[in-house]
Amino acid sequence: MQTSSTRSIRRVLTGVIGVAVTAGSFGAIAGTAAATDSTPMAAAPPGLVVSYTAPPPTLVLTPYANMEIPAVPDRGTFIPGVAVLADGGAVVLDREAEVAYLVGSDGSTAPAPALDAYPSSIVATAGPVVYGFIVDPPGDGFGVGAVALAGPNAGRVVSSGPAPDPSLYLELPVGALGNGPGGVVDRSRSPGAVLAGHVDTAGTPVTIEGLRAPLTITDTNLVTDGANPERSWQLAIERHPEATAPYAGESPPAPGVGGTSVYWTSIGPPSQLSDPLSPALQSVIAVLQPDGTGQWYSIPEGWFPVSSDVGGTLFARRPEGSGVVELARLDTAATGPAPAAIPPLAAQCDDYEFNNQYPLRRCDSGPAVRIVQQQLQGIDPDLGDDGFFGPLTDRAVRRFQETDGLAVDGLVGRNTWRALTEGQVTGSDADGSGVIDPSELEQAAVAGFPPVNVTMSQGGTTWAVVLAGSADFEDPALLAAMNAASNVGYSPGPTDCDVGAAQALGIDSEIVYTVSVYYASEADARTALAAFAARGQTGVVAQVQTFCLD
What we know:
Blueprint: H1 4-13, E1 49-51, E2 61-68, E3 81-84, E4 90-94, E5 99-103, E6 109-111, E7 120-125, E8 129-135, E9 142-148, E10 157-162, E11 177-180, E12 183-186, E13 194-196, E14 216-217, E15 222-224, E16 232-234, E17 236-238, E18 254-255, E19 261-266, E20 283-288, E21 294-298, E22 304-309, E23 312-317, E24 324-330, H2 332-335, E25 353-354, E26 364-365, H3 367-376, H4 391-403, H5 414-421, E27 461-470, H6 476-486, E28 498-499, H7 501-505, E29 513-519, H8 522-534, E30 540-546
Parallel strand pairs: 1-17, 25-26
Antiparallel strand pairs: 2-24, 3-4, 4-5, 5-6, 7-8, 8-9, 9-10, 11-12, 12-13, 14-15, 15-16, 18-19, 19-20, 20-21, 22-23, 23-24, 27-29, 27-30, 28-30
């Protein structure tokens, strides 16, 4: 249980170590540097130019959830902490009222158990676990802690550590912390610095896939993607001459749903020019697309951005003195197509097996998987195309199936393959199905590598480059050989049906699995062997009989 001394210390520090979103959060204090541009605005694409003289169109928000949180006297429109989850759900936490809610991706709400500590500047991960700044139980400082919200440890601090430099985190803007590939990261004071590792509800360290590195913004309003410095957005912002800098600094740019990013600020003056702390006018948000374009929107009056990450961008409002807090989402019309929820990640694969037949599935590998990944990058721009069907590819397939009205099973069968690749791949429709299947893809697109022999027959003899062989089907050498071939456009798999392949490698065993690429002539095979050797892959040229053709 939480002690009374801990409670009192936390309350004393509430206004110091935390983010209180109020109507004045975009205001400023006297003496702070003005946020106006004294020099001409930087050149920027038309959609990324915003001026107080011509406010942009109003953003469309989608109602999401409502919850009752007691209003505290003298706090006006105070908004509690909100942290969006990767699946589109959220955690809502009010440190003063000592109330926390779990919000599902469908808007359903459930109160969380009483917490031993109520963090500030919160972020959250699946479990769920909420992270943020907390007062250490002895009351002698503060650090970054993780509180489990479910399971046997619900309500308990399951992990904590000291803040690296407490003086940096006494006053923070909304969105100052976020989730990144390495854990909970600083987005504001020292962008990219990892403040705490991710944990599960037992406090065990975990690695979470699919998160994005923090973005940065320069004094000239150039926003850059932390994971890909070549991806940037030049903003042009003209603020009112009386505009002043926010009290805790500008909120940093943040990742959004579907590969987008967002950046919010204010371009108007304080609502009372005689009081720089009065609410700032003309709050705006830029929705930044992965291709470097974007669009500014005016934030509807009374609403405040409270959290943004790969699960979406959330806004909140509370009418004056009301005990109800409302949440809304950034409408997908502004952010691009995305499903309502991101499916959970499947387990990692212990190993991968080559496959060019239906269905392609998790733990498969090969050129067909690479093509699937390339076509899915519209759903997940950060998805790689390494040719290995892992949990990230599995999740992207499910999201595509959901948005395209297909059966959501994570399997790339004929229907999903057709929807992904129609008109995008070349090959021979040998079975007359109207679809170029994975096994019918045109191979060897890399310069220096001849095409495969397409006239092979069952029991026939052909020339081949035999890249590897082993009596152990799971020998890493076989996988390495398949990868070497896959990287240049071929799609061989381990087989024990090529007579002559094992003998060419000098392997004498009753059953030997080999990885071979077939060619129409000895000259083609020797050309390919030289090209493989230049890439560090050894092999031999041999004539083999093929008995396992499909």
